[in-house]
Amino acid sequence: xxxxxxxxxxxxxxxxxxxxxxxxxxxxxxxxxxxxxxxxxxxxxxxxxxxxxxxxxxxxxxxxxxxxxxxxxxxxxxxxxxxxxxxxxxxxxxxxxxxxxxxxxxxxxxxxxxxxxxxxxxxxxxxxxxxxxxxxxxxx
Length: 140
Fold this sequence. Notes:
mainly alpha; 4 helices; 2 strands; single chain
């Protein structure tokens, strides 16, 4: 069970790190133009970059979960994963956000994928935490 949940976490981390880079407005050729004529990326681009910063430790957490032998380490990885999953949810919804127009590509693809991935990361990490408490001995 530990190997399956760890592998699921790694797959979710890949989705969290890769999908937003190809579904933000900058990848679609859209950006904001300031009054001085400069172009700057929209909020969804910054959310995509921030998710890379969450995806990397989440993938490491999944790898550590697969190879850990002590139930304390596995339990801590579960807590860590729930926290990172909450961050995945927070970036597109509360902390940074995505574009304001509902018909933008980032609202139709990036935000739902990140919300679903964050929820799944939290659920799978919760399963890691619960199963770590049921592990017998330090070498389960």
